[in-house]
Design goal:
Helix content: under 10%
Oligomer: single chain
Radius of gyration: 12 Å
Structural class: mainly beta
Shape: globular
Number of helices: 1
Order of helices and strands: HEEEEEE
Strand content: over 45%
Length: about 100
Amino acid sequence: MNEQICDAIRSKSVIKFYYNGGNRTAEPFCYGISRKGNDLLRAFQTGGYSESGNPVHWKLFTVEKMSNITITDEAFSGNRPDYNPDDPVMEDIYCNI
């Protein structure tokens, strides 16, 4: 488990990281493990690179593919439409809003 991600979730701090070809900025909401044993982060991406061409949207990130994770000084409210704190893709949740 990446404690840095849980720290960002608890403090409702925006994170920046590199993922699949580019830098991204996101609000982390839910961090857990999938049924296949992969650590996952459900976050609302607010900017940066997007393979889909839609950088501002809910995204699911595989934590092992994330690098250079930085917790910023920017806070977010923790309220976003369509957020489910009991994320169904996660078998076990480490931390969430």
